[in-house]
Write a structure and sequence with these properties.
Blueprint: E1 5-6, H1 8-15, H2 19-28, E2 37-39, E3 42-46, H3 47-56, E4 63-67, H4 76-89, E5 95-99, H5 105-110, H6 113-121, H7 126-134, H8 144-147, E6 149-150, E7 162-165, H9 171-174, H10 194-199, E8 208-212, H11 219-226, E9 230-235, H12 239-242, H13 245-259, E10 264-270, H14 277-287, H15 294-297, H16 314-317, H17 328-332, H18 334-355
Helix pairs in contact: 1-2, 4-18
């Protein structure tokens, strides 16, 4: 090969990374140089162009964000899905949404139930990943590349840069058995690292990974937190929905300390907001960092995002793949979409600030 042309192996050597990392860069970054030519042995690039790109490249880390609330029905999934969609469509980021919730609401918000059922029967959901580790004496069925569904959304038949790792209701029967994996003969597997290890070949190709967690702080949620750089707490601004926020923050803080890993809350987002006195009072408390036990515990309350998501009837329609949706305003309704767009900008700015 000419000294002026380099293949993936040479690029990996120039950048001091693996060949897999170079392949992930190609998939993730639209500004990665195009190959000069594709030979039988693979693509080749002009060395000078690649070296210039590497010098400009700052090693941008993948932002992994978990969306958590211990209470259901607070708009957690809708918020996570919308942020993922807007990041992919409007910010042109490569995004993977991981549905860890056995209710599978995020999954069927992005693909049809028929498509999900086929994937589930073929073992191409997150449940199969955990099932393989529980039944480690059987040949594994889960394959990360085959399980990721590409170009998902109910808008315009899909969003090019948005991928999905679907969930399954089978996870309900599996989640209580996951903590016992290391005690049933599979001593090489840490139950908290199952998702982390599965994602290693692909995570580098994404700018953002959004994780929709189940309404608990069990092992499945901790698998998400294990790889997260931060988390978001969507909540209705009422007494019942905000009651568990202190428990979330305190438990995640202690979990991070045990792992010697920083998992910081990005903030709380008020969802399904109405103009009644209760919502107004709770939003005021959240704005001033004095929600419930936070006021006296010494544990800092996560900040409240400025963007508040109003109650919107159109949100329910957004999960219908037969609704022939063309725009975010059509899926979420204009007021909710504008708030979700503002929230996405806030999250993006926070993540970018942490990368500086």
């Amino acid at each position: 090969m000419s000294e002026e042309l380099v293949g993936i192996g040479e690029i990996a050597t120039l950048a001091n990374v693996s060949k897999q990392a170079v392949s992930n860069w190609r998939a993730r970054y639209d500004h990665f140089p195009q190959p000069f030519q594709t030979l039988q042995s693979g693509p080749v690039w002009h060395r000078e162009k690649v070296e210039r790109w590497i010098k400009m490249f700052k090693g941008e880390a993948t932002h992994v964000l978990s969306f958590i609330n211990l209470k259901g029905g607070v708009g957690k999934t809708t918020t996570a899905v919308a942020v993922a969609e807007i990041l992919a469509q409007e910010e042109r980021k490569h995004v993977l949404l991981i549905d860890l919730d056995p209710q599978t609401n995020a999954t069927v918000n992005l693909i049809s139930e028929e498509a999900w059922d086929k994937l589930d029967q073929e073992g191409r959901t997150i449940a199969q990943l955990f099932d393989d580790k529980i039944n480690h004496h059987l040949p594994p069925k889960f394959d990360i590349e085959r399980s990721i569904v590409r170009g998902v959304s109910t808008i315009n038949g899909g969003i090019e840069r948005l991928d999905l790792l679907p969930s399954s209701i089978r996870l309900i029967d599996l989640q209580d058995r996951i903590p016992m994996i290391a005690m049933t003969g599979n001593f090489t597997v840490n139950p908290l690292d199952i998702l982390k290890l599965a994602l290693q070949p692909v995570i580098g190709r994404y700018d953002y990974v959004i994780i929709d967690c189940p309404p608990s702080l069990g092992t499945v949620t901790k698998n998400g937190l294990r790889i997260s750089s931060g988390y978001v707490i969507p909540t209705i601004p009422d007494i019942v929905s905000t009651w568990g926020i202190y428990q979330i923050v305190d438990n995640v803080r202690r979990f991070g300390n045990e792992l010697q890993q920083d998992v910081e809350p990005l903030g709380i987002v008020a969802t399904k907001v109405q103009g009644n006195n209760l919502h107004t009072r709770v939003v005021t408390d959240l704005s001033h960092g004095r929600l419930g036990k936070f006021a006296t515990s010494g544990v800092a309350q996560p900040p409240l995002f400025k963007s508040k998501i109003p109650q919107a009837v159109a949100v329910a329609r957004g999960a219908d793949p037969e609704a022939d949706l063309r725009t975010f305003k059509g899926k979420y309704g204009t007021p909710a979409y504008e708030s979700l767009q503002g929230l996405t900008q806030e999250i993006k700015l926070l993540c970018e600030a942490k990368s500086l």
